[in-house]
Specification:
- The longest helix has 12 residues.
- The chain has one domain: Alpha-Beta Plaits.
- α1 runs antiparallel to α2.
- With 103 residues, the protein is of the alpha+beta class.
- The protein is 22% helix and 37% strand.
- Strands 4-1-3-2-5 form a five-stranded mixed β-sheet, with helices on one face.
- The N terminus is likely disordered.
Length: 103
């Protein structure tokens, strides 16, 4: 199966999640979900109350993760999810970052 088929195209989504998404386990649920899906990237809380995340992987898997972000873990109340597509960086693993890592 060739790697150049459109459904296996690697993409990167930079996502900002707005709502009650801090203090509800959102980051850790994101790590669990993204890791189960085989995505790479990171997630962190922002000082303004949003959660920021980057997902890299196959297009259909990244799109599935973005759909998950609209709901998040059970205690979250998501109001908006903004997505920007960027060039993949070839990240490895999926981690929680602190705000002061790469501002």
């Amino acid at each position: 199966m060739p790697n150049s088929t459109p459904h296996s195209q690697l993409i990167r989504a930079h996502v900002l999640i707005v709502g009650r998404v801090q203090g509800v386990g959102y980051r850790y649920a994101t790590v669990d979900t993204a890791s189960q899906l085989g995505l790479t990237g990171w997630v962190r809380n922002l000082p303004d109350g949003r959660v920021e995340a980057v997902f890299e992987g196959a297009r259909e898997i990244v799109e599935e993760m973005i759909r998950w972000c609209h709901a998040g873990p059970p205690a979250a109340v998501v109001q908006d999810v903004a997505v920007a597509y960027e060039e993949p960086e070839g990240l490895r693993g999926f981690e929680v970052r602190r705000v002061d890592e790469r501002e």
